[in-house]
Amino acid sequence: MTVSPIFAYAQARIQARYGALPTEEDWQRLAGARTLGLFLEEAREGALRDWVKGFSASSDAHDLDRGLRVIWTESVDQVTQWMPKPWRGSVAWLRWLPLLPILAHAAGGGPLPEWADRDPILRTWRGADGTLDPAALSAAGAGALLVPPPELAQAWRAQWRRLWPACGRRLASSLQHLEAMAARHMAAFRSAGGDAAWPLRRELRERLRLDFHRRPLEPTVAFIFLALVVLDLERLRAAIMQRALFSSQEPV
Question: 169: how many CB neighbours lie within 10 A of its CB?
Answer without folding.
Answer: 7
